[in-house]
Amino acid sequence: MDSLSRFETLTDRYVSIHERTRGLISDLRRLIRLLEHDINHEEERTGISDLTNSNYSAVARQSRGRRDNLVATIRKLEKDAASPIIIRSLSPPH
């Protein structure tokens, strides 16, 4: 395999990873919307939306934590996707 075809393979692989990352981010955003809906529903059901209230729903609190983790994951994925790729070498080590 010559250097050009290795480069093409790496480029194709990068494009594939980038597309899968965009799909994952899209799926995570959908999950966030679902969690926000669940949080709102639980807060309406209990009548408590104040996080400092000792009677705040454990389900809503857990859903908030999950949502916050997903938001952080999306930020990390977007940051990583925006980073340039550094190709150190296309040839095998000596």
Describe this structure in words.
The protein is built from 2 helices and no strands. The protein has one domain (3-80). The protein has helices at 3-46, 58-82. By secondary structure, the protein is an all-alpha fold. The model is unreliable at 86-92 (pLDDT under 50).
For this entry, give a set of tags:
94 residues; mainly alpha; disordered C terminus
What is the C-alpha radius of gyration, as a whole number of Å? 21 Å
Shape: rod-shaped
- The portion of residues forming beta strands comes to under 5%
Number of domains: 1
Number of helical stretches of at least 4 residues? 2
In short:
The chain is an all-alpha fold and 94 residues long. It contains 2 helices and no strands.
Write the layout of secondary structure elements.
Layout: H1 3-46, H2 58-82
Helix pairs in contact: 1-2
